[in-house]
Write a structure and sequence with these properties.
The chain contains 15 helices and 22 strands. With about 475 residues, the chain is α+β, with helices and mostly antiparallel strands. The protein has four domains: about 140 residues, Methyltransferase, Cobalt-precorrin-4 Transmethylase, Domain 2, CATH 3.30.950; about 70 residues, no CATH class; about 170 residues, Heat Shock Protein 90, CATH 3.30.565; about 60 residues, Winged helix-like DNA-binding domain superfamily/Winged helix DNA-binding domain (Arc Repressor Mutant, subunit A). Strands 12-11-15-16-18-17 form a six-stranded mixed β-sheet, with helices on one face. Strands 1-2-5-4 form a four-stranded mixed β-sheet, with helices on both faces. Strands 3-6-7-8 form a four-stranded antiparallel β-sheet. Helix 10 packs antiparallel against helix 12, helix 13 packs across helix 15 and helix 14 packs across helix 15. The radius of gyration is 34 Å and the shape is elongated.
Length: about 475
């Protein structure tokens, strides 16, 4: 609040864009208009404005006696809902020999334009008026420039001691800044991080994004900043928990752990035959696609909530759910053709570290890999409103050709080593093919695929095996020929 000496200096100076004097104590409209104009600070100099009640235009005191009712009336202007967004202001009484002076000190708003009953008031010199269209545009642009995303805002109460400086210097800065520039940069690490948007010099503290990316204990300040993995037995959460993991450190370290976990514990690769001499590797869940869905959840989640990213695995699917629905310009209708970033500075860091792309191509590649691997396309749930869920079904090809699954003690499913040890053996599949050929000697491969619900590679392989064994043969051309079963 202004001191009495500073107040006397302003009181005896000419009325300006920072000062309005009045002798009235009942003109509420005049008071609100002045406070609104000071909050808009059209001059842009960032200095506080002062409404002085109890003084004439020449600075002489009117002999006013400030009582509690007047103090309450002026103080209530901040919260009565007529001046929006709410102004930041303080109200204080000053007593002099010739009378009292009530002073309302108003800070320039970071989110202009401020309106009083829907009208934008500005102060130009000693007078106030409605904002012109040009002035309103200036205030709107100022508002946009002052609005920060949550990851760029200062994490109040934190210091550089809350960051893992070793990780920043060894793993992040060398990838974020060119080698020659970094070698010549003699600034403190605070200034280096500030230049990248991860430190707020005004408040001398790291940003929320810095705590998430480099914090020694992110959960201390952002309680939901972790990933929870659970492997359930069965197809819903009612099943027993077979395995669980929590990834709760800073992203600079945890992303590497998550990456390794998906590759070694989730993907689970095995070869399947596609011809007599060739095999193809198929994963239960393709590594890159699964990794991309989880990394996107970490990047786009809402870090203001206490909920973690959920990475749940069931017998038949994986679900990745992040707190925070679709953001900004993205809607159910334009997803995934349009992208927007709830956490642009976290997204930038994850791009620098090589864990995500920022070019709206990730989902297309995810769908392509899932289809090729036999999982079918990922399913996106937009109905949760405050969350977003992606579902990835288990690969059907992974269990083809008679390979079943054993569940080990740790809950991870691995294919049985011998294909003929399961109920659906290659012989049974081949018997079905023989039966289909007997019923329709002109049946095509595509018709067999549809009839037996098999992939093209599977039908091709078993036809080759039956032909090699001399059980069937094909007579005539590929298009017009027919199959013969040799008895």
């Amino acid at each position: 609040m202004i001191t009495q000496e500073e107040l006397l200096q302003l009181l005896h100076d000419t009325e300006s864009y920072r000062v309005e004097r009045t002798t009235s104590k009942t003109n509420a409209d005049k008071f609100c208009q002045a406070i609104c104009a000071f909050a808009n600070d059209i001059s842009g100099n960032g200095k506080n404005g002062y409404l002085m009640i109890g003084a004439h235009d020449n600075g002489e005191l009117s002999g006013l006696k400030v009582d509690d009712e007047l103090l309450l009336t002026i103080s209530n202007i901040r919260t009565d809902g007529n001046v929006l967004p709410q102004p930041v202001m303080t109200v204080e009484k000053f007593s002099f020999e010739k009378g009292d002076l009530l002073v309302a000190e108003v800070q320039p708003s970071e989110f202009p334009p401020v309106r009083y009953r829907g009208r934008i008031w500005v102060r130009v010199g000693p007078r106030k008026s409605f904002a012109t269209e040009a002035e309103e545009k200036i205030l709107m642009e100022r508002r946009l420039s002052n609005i920060h995303t949550f990851d760029e805002m200062p994490c109040m109460g934190t210091t550089m001691n809350d960051l893992d400086i070793d990780v920043i210097k060894r793993e992040f800065l060398p990838q974020a800044v060119a080698e020659d520039i970094l070698a010549e940069d003699k600034r403190h690490v605070e200034e280096q991080l500030a230049s990248l948007g991860y430190y707020d010099l005004r408040y001398n503290c790291p940003t929320n994004g810095a705590i998430v990316l480099f914090g020694k204990n992110p959960e201390r300040y952002l309680h939901g900043s972790y990933v929870q993995y659970v492997r359930f037995k069965g197809k819903d959460r009612a099943g027993d928990i077979i395995n669980e993991q929590v990834f709760n450190g800073n992203l600079c370290r945890e992303l590497a752990r998550i990456d390794t976990f998906i590759e070694t514990s989730i993907a689970q690769k095995r070869p399947i035959p596609v011809s007599v001499l060739r095999e193809e590797t198929v994963s239960k869940y393709p590594y890159w696609a699964t990794r991309e869905l989880l990394m996107n959840a970490i990047m786009h989640r809402d870090y203001q909530t206490n909920a973690p990213v959920l990475f749940y695995e069931y017998d038949d699917r994986i679900e990745v759910q992040n707190p925070g629905g679709l953001y900004g310009k993205v809607s159910e209708e334009n997803f995934p053709n349009v992208s927007d970033y709830r956490n642009p500075f976290i997204a930038k860091a994850m791009k620098i570290l090589g864990y995500v792309n920022r070019f709206s191509r990730g989902i297309y590649r995810v769908q392509k890999e899932l289809v090729e691997n036999g999982n079918g396309e990922a399913i996106f749930d937009f109905d949760l409103i405050t969350a977003f869920r992606a579902t990835e079904n288990v690969s059907q090809r992974y269990f083809e050709e008679g390979f079943g699954a054993d569940t080990q003690e740790n809950g991870q499913e691995t294919p049985k080593k011998h294909p003929r040890s399961t109920q659906e053996t290659p012989k049974n599949i081949q018997d079905e093919i023989i039966e289909a050929i007997k019923n329709n000697s002109s049946i095509t491969r595509k018709e067999l695929e549809a009839l037996l619900d098999r992939t093209p590679d599977s039908i091709k392989y078993h036809l080759a095996q039956l032909t090699k064994k001399g059980i069937i043969k094909h007579i005539g051309s590929t298009k017009a020929g027919k199959w013969v079963v040799i008895e």
